[in-house]
Amino acid sequence: MKNKILVKKAVCIMSGGMDSTLSAKMMKDEGYEIIAVHFNYGQRTQKKEQECFDLICQHLNISQTYSLDLDFFKHLGASALTDTKIDVPVSGVEEGVPITYVPFRNGIFLSMAAAIAEKENAELISIGVVQEDSSGYPDCRETYIQAMQNAINLGTKDETNITIHMPLVHLLKSEIVTKSLEVSSPLKLTWSCYKNEEKACGVCDSCRLRLNGFEQAGAIDPIVYE
C-alpha cells in the first residue's frame, strides 16, 4: 500500500496588491498548495481589486479561491477607503495613523482566514503586511500579528496549529519590488491606488509608496498612471 502524500496548504490573504501577491508567489514557490482569500469590504477600488485578484490567481494557477463580501466596514465608515465623504489624502504629509486606516481590518481578515485554514486543514496563513516601510497602520505590526497567531491557536481545535507567515514584514518597498522581479511575481496585474480604478492616481499615499519603491529599485512600474 502506497503511503499517502501529505499536501501542505497555505491560506493566502490576497488584496490584489503587490505585497500580498509576492507573499502568495513565495508560498507557491515553497511548495504550498495555495488557498487564495480576497475580501470585498466596500473599499473605493473594490471592483479593480477583485479583477486583479482573479487575474493573479489565474496567472499563479490557483484553483481554490474565496472572495468574501463584507458590508460591515462600509457601515462602520471612519476610513477614507470605505467612506466616500472622507477625501483620500494626496499631500503625503499626514502624521500619525492615516485616515486610510480601516479599524481592525487585518484582525477581522485574519480571523476569517483562520476559520478557512482550520476547515481546509491548512498549516499556514500568509499575509503581506509590511512594518518597516508601511503607512503606519497599527494592524501591520509584527508583534500584533504574532499575538493574533497565539489567539487563533487558542481558539481553534487542539490539533489545529496555524502559523501566520509575514515574509515581507521587515522589507522596504524597494526590496519588495526587487524580490518581485527576482521571483517573477506578476507586478503588472497588481493594483495599489486608493482612489482610482482605471488609471492609478500617482499621488495617494499608496501610489507614492509604490512609485518610490520602483524608483529606488531602479525599475519601471508596469501599471498605468494618470
Overview of the structural elements:
The structure is a single chain. This protein has 226 residues and is of the alpha/beta class. It has a single domain, classed as Rossmann fold. Helix content is 37%, strand content 11%. The chain contains seven helices and five strands. It has helices at 18-29, 46-59, 72-76, 105-120, 142-154, 173-182, 205-217; strands spanning 9-13, 33-40, 64-69, 124-126, 163-165. A five-stranded parallel β-sheet has the order 3-2-1-4-5, with helices on both faces. α6 (173-182) packs across α7. The longest helix is centred in the middle third of the chain and has 16 residues, at 105-120. The mean pLDDT is 94.
What is the secondary structure topology, with strand pairs?
Elements: E1 9-13, H1 18-29, E2 33-40, H2 46-59, E3 64-69, H3 72-76, H4 105-120, E4 124-126, H5 142-154, E5 163-165, H6 173-182, H7 205-217
Parallel strand pairs: 1-2, 1-4, 2-3, 4-5
Features:
226 residues; alpha/beta; Rossmann fold; 5-stranded parallel beta sheet; 7 helices; 5 strands; globular
Quickly describe the structure.
The chain is α/β, with parallel strands linked by helices and 226 residues long. It has helices at 18-29, 46-59, 72-76, 105-120, 142-154, 173-182, 205-217; strands spanning 9-13, 33-40, 64-69, 124-126, 163-165.
